[in-house]
Design brief:
The complex is a heterodimer of chains A (557) and B (683).
Chain A (H helix, E strand, L loop, with lengths): L26 E7 L7 E6 L13 E5 L8 H14 L5 H7 L3 E7 L5 H4 L1 H4 L1 H5 L1 E9 L7 H22 L7 H10 L15 H12 L5 E5 L24 E7 L14 H6 L7 H16 L7 H7 L22 H14 L10 H9 L18 H14 L4 E6 L5 E4 L5 H6 L4 E2 L17 E2 H6 L1 E5 L21 H4 L2 E4 L3 H5 L11 H11 L3 E3 L7 H6 L2 E2 L3 E6 L1
Parallel strand pairs in A: 3-4, 4-5, 5-6, 9-12, 12-13, 13-14
Antiparallel strand pairs in A: 1-2, 1-16, 2-3, 7-8, 8-9, 10-11, 15-16
Chain B lengths: L12 E7 L3 H4 L2 H4 L3 E7 L4 E2 L6 E2 L8 E3 L2 E2 L4 E2 L8 H5 L10 H23 L8 E9 L2 H6 L30 E9 L4 E8 L4 E4 L4 E8 L12 E3 L4 H16 L9 H18 L4 H10 L12 E2 L1 H6 L7 E2 L2 E3 L6 E3 L6 H4 L3 H31 L13 H24 L11 H15 L7 H11 L12 H4 L12 H17 L2 H10 L3 H20 L3 H11 L4 H5 L6 E13 L5 E16 L2 H7 L5 E13 L4 E8 L4 H17 L9 H6 L1
Parallel strand pairs in B: 5-10, 10-12
Antiparallel strand pairs in B: 1-2, 3-4, 6-7, 8-9, 11-12, 12-13, 14-15, 16-17, 18-19, 19-20, 20-21
Helix pairs in contact in B: 4-6, 4-12, 6-7, 7-11, 7-12, 8-12, 11-12, 11-14, 13-14, 17-18
The chains are: A alpha/beta (557), B alpha+beta (683).
Chain lengths: 557, 683
């Protein structure tokens, strides 16, 4: 296994070095599972004994996410078994203490999307048999945090409204709705779970429950949390138990409101949960659209015609009073047909041609055959896709972003979840103020805070965000800051199965995004590894990337 | 039999009541008095004689517009208004009301017709909408014809003719492989369709695919700064929104390729132009103008209703002020209105269409303010015994009237200049700098002696906003004016004279004058459309039939290539004569300017710049590039006054269009761009 020699520049300024020289030299092994389009990384910390002659300390395991798209539980079980196997405890004392053969010391969940969480539904019984030490989630999942609560409420409301809207039979033929449906599957039920259908929220709740047991803990992390302090519990710091020389930094999700587009910010938005930055007007679009759809009947061969005979009592967004309504489904035989249908189901059918002189006008304008290209039956629904996309993007921006710093070499490993542009932009404001030791004379200069960008610049391993989609790794304030292979031996992992990606949506997703991929290849000197590929590149192999049927792995020290 | 002498003469105008700005202005005591206006729209009969007898054209459905009030989210229609109903005629239309859909129809009709009328008056010719084009597949037996005609399957290109079979357009080829050809069949669209209640969102847009305006309605934000929280807001009741969208449709009917974003300015220009028309329409409302002049004491550079767009919309969606304000904005921290300070760097930072567009509008509005101040300074001096310093208190009503007259006149002039400049724009890939050149050139043609300093005001305002054209020596009128063909021959008087002679003979051969006469004889818009279509086809055939010196000349003037079209070599070039328009305009000095504007479009295959190709690792050596030219022909002199071309010679343009193509490719992460450019732009 190739180890990376220490950088000549030594530890970064500001990064505190451990007082004792023992217990140093931890190496971090990153294992990217090759289970399809989704994220699952097992990170193992191998520490050196504290004193010479001491026994080798137990390796510490951290699992970040376990989810996939378009794969069933049987498929996922292989990987879950491997995780259980790989986290087996060697020492029987440990087994007794933890009450389980296997132990994940820290379980990290980045954000509530299917491709990061589905496995906790699909292979729940396997995880039930693994002991979990701590659960780390983003502050946005904290039920005690009022902002996070609002955020979840807004998201929940928007998701269910959109799902309802996008699945309405009225939208079966509207392309925008099909795209919206694909996006919404990120939040959706997991049809292949052996124990009935479960939503992705339930997977998240399961993980949360594993952190709330008597012998486990749960932490909701905020950017700025790190080796110096924890915002939520001042005085405490973020630590990996049993690993002395690795610092953990939390970079995102952002808590700042200045990420928002100025044009759409309103006071109400700020209260509502700002990440879901639908302008109020867009929010009302959703409400008004759903009200209209709710008023439409959900079954029947000709929903459009049926709707006209339906009751509209629930639609409170009608612009005018009922006296102005003229329900008319068009001229000729199609009209007669719908008449019959309406008659069979409705006690009081609306007349076919309510007011002949008015119907005449619509026959000769809206329903004129040669002008059919100008009809607008579905245009009002086009916003649904736009909103779904927005929702998806906003959820990606709730990703928990972690950086691990090896204090001996100052090397950094970066895991960004699915963070998109908005999140990357916030990193410039994330700093970690370095505490001044109590014995320092007051005249001494306070050390400048450690910045998130400084961590980026020292990155030697990068878990590429959002399966290398085009807007999930920014150039400025992102990849540009990272060192090149020549400077820092950068290796990038992309969890991605291209075949699955191509099947998504109407046209397939372009993953990896061509330009980003090229930039990554250039930056890493071809040491960019895609999980779905059969073999890593020769350069990556030479750099020490190990290939196994179930995973690729790489070790940093 | 009717007694002729007792028949009343047909009226020139139909007067219709409506909101001057939008309903929110009507609900404030301060502005209540000026919240309504009588729109004077050109009289049209609004009856149909087709179905025997004369049925009233409800809707309204006239020569230019048809209002179809279908509300798909609510699943119902609203009854169409009959503007010819005697009760409606007798009271100048229905009274403004938010709760009456028939009034909404009347409002959109009145505003849109006013805008169309304004547009036509400035251009001196009838307005047209975008053609409806339909893909037609033909069994074709001639391989060579297929090649020559390949351009017709390009989405943006116009077919040679709507009525003639395509084959007749081509030099007779002879070969007998059977292949399929595709081309776009174009149809005349007489009426722009308006749907006043099409969407349930805070949006309104012009759909080029449907040649229709779609207006939305939405409940006001709960914390909206005024008005009734949660109350319904109708975009179709806002003068500004209706005027803006109508202008989009007019501009699209004028140059439809201005919807193809080949650089950052193209869509921004579309937005800016629509805003300019909506904005300057305000100054044609006499009551409102006087009221605001009195309120601002003659200083139109301070906060006023006239310089803002869509007040109700802006506030209803939760922001403090109007949707757009071109002279100032509310500071979020202090809550106070502050005037914008022009900064040439703004343009560099603005990348979104609306932000860039706002800079162009602000520049044009600045030019207007400069002109208005200059024109009104003497009035202020007269009213203040020569001191020029106004006394505190209210202005004298006479002074207000006179100031209003000056403001209205200046605004009218500026709007005329802005609209007429369209004739002088390149047909594709427009930039703000080129629009500035078009503005200056158009005005120099009509007002050779700029005694009132209009052009200086425009130049100054554009300079302060950092809007400059590329490739000119100095920022002066003369450099900005478009060049005539052969300007590179400066100094060689004999060559220039020969060029002029040759061009004149070329124009004669192309029957330009006869074509113009034919166009002028047409009465209805459909006749004009058919005639222009035939003329474009004729000129196209002339162009591809050119040989020898004539061909060289035509190619050097337009910077386009016609030889390849005829020879149908492997390098397939497509071209089309997009429009042929005439204008007779009165110059400032009393003479008539007798002009024809011809636009030609072409797609050329150009080499990908070497460094670009290396950077992108592309194998392709060639890429298609849209080119085009506008020729301004003086019919009296029989010369080409200006040749405005967008040829393949500019390497920055190639890079720009590559970048633009890439940017649109990246704009939508998972899915292709929606076809409704404006829907997304406004969302």
């Amino acid at each position: 296994m190739a180890a990376i020699p220490p950088d000549e520049s030594g530890p970064a300024q500001g990064a505190p070095s451990s007082t004792s020289q023992t217990g140093m030299g931890t190496s971090i092994r990153v294992r990217m599972y090759r289970h399809g389009l989704g994220d699952c990384h097992l990170i193992t910390f191998f520490s050196k004994p504290a004193r010479q002659g001491d026994p080798q300390p137990r390796p510490i395991h951290m699992l970040i996410d376990f989810g996939v798209l378009n794969r069933d539980a049987d498929h996922m079980r292989k990987y879950a078994e491997n995780i259980r196997e790989s986290t087996k405890l060697a020492n029987q004392d440990d087994v007794r203490v933890f009450g389980s053969e296997s132990r994940i010391d820290i379980l990290v969940v980045t954000h509530e999307h299917r491709d990061h969480l589905s496995g906790f539904n699909q292979c729940r019984e396997i995880f039930d048999s693994i002991s979990i030490g701590a659960v780390w989630m983003a502050w946005t999942e904290n039920p005690e945090d009022p902002v996070a609560r609002n955020l979840a409420k807004t998201r929940e409301k928007a998701t269910s409204a959109l799902r309802l809207a996008a699945r309405h039979p009225r939208l079966a033929a509207v392309p925008a709705a099909q795209n919206a449906n694909t996006i919404l599957t990120f939040f959706d039920d997991d049809d292949n779970a052996p124990i009935g259908r479960r939503t992705i929220r339930q997977a998240l709740e399961y993980v949360r429950s594993r952190g709330t047991g008597p012998r486990s803990s749960i932490s909701y992390l905020t950017p700025g949390d790190g080796p110096f302090t924890l915002k939520s519990r001042p005085g405490e710091t973020l630590k990996i138990p049993g690993v002395a020389d690795v610092n953990v930094y939390v970079l995102a999700p952002p808590t700042k409101t200045d990420l928002l587009k100025h044009s759409t910010v309103t006071r109400q938005d700020k209260d509502d949960g700002w990440i879901f930055h639908f302008g109020r007007s867009i929010g009302s679009y959703l409400e008004a659209t759903c009200a209209a759809l709710a008023a439409a009947p959900t079954s029947g061969a000709e929903p459009e015609k049926m709707r006209r005979g339906g009751t509209l009592t629930s639609d409170t967004y009608q612009p005018f009073t009922n006296v102005h309504r003229i329900e008319y489904g068009g001229p000729s035989d199609s009209q007669e047909k719908s008449q019959k249908q309406v008659k069979s189901q409705q006690p009081l059918p609306t007349p076919a041609r309510p007011w002949p002189e008015i119907a005449d006008f619509f026959d000769h304008s809206y329903y004129q055959t040669e002008n059919a290209w100008r009809k607008i039956d579905d245009d009002w629904l086009a916003g649904i896709e736009h909103l779904s996309l927005k929702l998806d993007e906003d959820t990606n921006n709730t990703s928990l972003v972690l950086a691990f710093e090896l204090t001996a070499t100052s090397n950094v490993l970066l895991f960004v979840g699915d963070m998109q542009v908005g999140g990357w932009r916030s990193l410039e404001n994330v700093h970690f103020p370095i505490p001044v030791p109590p014995e320092t004379p007051p005249s001494a200069q306070t050390p400048p805070p450690l910045s998130a960008h400084d961590l980026l610049a020292r990155t030697v391993f990068y878990k590429v965000g959002h399966h290398a989609s085009h807007n999930a790794t920014t150039k400025k304030g992102g990849l540009d800051l990272m060192a090149t292979r020549e400077q820092r031996k950068l290796v990038a992992f992309i969890p991605l199965d291209r075949k699955t990606a191509e099947k998504q949506g109407k046209r397939g997703w372009k993953m990896p995004a061509e330009e980003l991929y090229k930039a990554l290849i250039a930056k890493t000197g071809n040491c960019t590894v895609i999980s779905g590929e059969s073999q890593p590149s020769p350069e990556a192999k030479a750099a020490g990337v190990r290939a196994e049927p179930l995973f690729f792995e790489y070790t940093v020290s | 039999m009717k007694h002729t002498a007792s028949q009343p003469p047909s009226p020139s105008y139909r007067q219709l009541r409506g909101y001057a700005f939008d309903p929110s202005v009507a609900s404030q005591l301060e502005t209540f008095a000026v919240s309504r206006i009588l729109y004077k729209v050109p009289w049209e009969d609004l009856t149909h004689s087709s179905s025997g007898g004369s049925a009233p054209a409800v809707g309204p459905q006239g020569e230019y517009l048809e209002v179809v009030d279908y509300d798909p989210p609510s699943g119902c229609f609203y009854a169409p208004v009959n503007l010819n109903d005697p009760y409606i005629l007798a009271q100048n239309g229905l009274s403004p009301s938010e709760g009456n859909p028939q009034f909404h129809q009347q409002m959109v009709y009145a505003v849109a017709m006013t805008v169309i009328d304004r547009f036509e008056r400035a251009l001196g010719r009838k307005a047209m909408w975008r053609d409806f084009s339909q893909l037609v597949r033909l069994e074709e037996e001639k391989e060579r014809v297929r090649k020559v005609r390949k351009y017709r399957s390009e989405s943006m290109s116009k077919p040679l003719s709507s009525s003639l079979p395509v084959e007749s357009a081509q030099p007779a080829p002879s070969s007998d492989d059977s292949t399929k050809i595709e081309y776009y069949h174009r149809r005349f669209v007489q009426r722009l369709r308006i749907y006043p209640h099409a969407l349930r969102e805070a949006n309104a847009y012009y759909s080029a695919d449907k040649v229709a305006l779609l207006f939305g309605y939405f409940p006001a934000a709960l914390e909206s700064t005024d008005g009734y929280p949660g109350g319904m807001v109708f975009t179709c009741l806002s003068h500004d929104i209706v005027a803006h969208e109508t202008t989009h449709a007019l501009l699209d009917g004028f140059h439809e390729e201005l919807l193809v974003p080949t650089n950052m300015d193209v869509l921004a220009f579309h937005e800016a132009f629509a805003d300019v028309v909506a904005l300057f329409q305000h100054f044609s409302f006499p009551e409102q103008l006087r009221h605001q002049i009195a309120k601002t004491r003659g200083d139109l550079g301070s906060e006023n209703l006239l310089a803002q767009l869509a007040t109700q919309f802006g506030r209803a969606s939760g922001s403090r002020g109007a949707l757009r304000d071109f002279i100032g904005t509310y500071n979020d921290a202090t809550g106070l209105w502050e005037r914008h300070v022009p900064n040439p760097a703004d343009l560099e930072h603005a990348t979104k269409a609306h932000d860039r567009g706002a800079i162009l509008v602000a520049a044009i509005f600045d030019a207007f303010l400069g002109i208005y101040r200059r024109r009104s300074r003497d009035l202020v001096r007269l009213a203040t015994s020569g001191t020029g310093v106004l006394q505190p208190g209210e202005l004298h009503p006479d002074l207000v009237n006179r100031l209003a007259a000056e403001a209205s006149k200046s605004a009218g002039h500026i709007l005329n200049i802005c609209i007429r400049a369209l004739d002088y724009c390149p047909p594709i890939d427009i930039t703000f700098g080129e629009y500035l050149r078009a503005l200056i050139t158009a005005d120099m043609d009509l007002v050779p002696d700029d005694s009132l300093g209009y052009r200086v005001a425009i130049l100054e305002a554009f300079r302060r906003r950092g809007i400059f054209p590329n490739h000119i020596q100095t920022l002066s009128e003369d450099s900005l004016r478009w060049s005539p063909p052969g300007y590179e021959l400066k100094g060689r008087i004999d060559e220039a004279a020969e060029l002029k002679r040759n061009l004149a003979s070329l124009l004669k051969k192309a029957n330009i004058r006869r074509h113009a006469e034919r166009l002028r004889a047409c009465k209805t818009r459909y006749e004009i459309w058919k005639a222009s279509d035939a003329i474009c086809l004729d000129i196209y055939n002339k162009l591809i039939g050119l040989t020898g010196k004539d061909l060289e000349l035509a190619q050097s003037v337009t910077k386009l290539k016609f030889r390849e079209l005829r020879e149908a070599s492997d390098e397939v070039y497509s071209a089309m004569v997009y429009s042929f328009r005439e204008a007779r305009r009165l110059r400032d000095d009393g003479r008539i300017l007798n002009q024809v504007f011809i636009t030609i479009l072409q797609t050329q295959q150009v080499a990908v710049p070497a460094d670009d190709a290396a950077k992108d690792n592309t194998e392709a050596e060639k890429m298609p590039l849209r080119c085009g030219a506008t020729l301004v022909v003086d019919l009296d002199e029989m010369c080409i006054s200006y040749a405005i071309h967008k040829g393949p010679g500019d390497p920055t343009r190639i890079q720009r269009s590559r970048r633009a193509a890439k940017a649109t490719g990246m704009a939508s992460p998972y899915f292709e761009q929606s076809s409704e450019t404006f829907a997304a732009l406004h969302r």
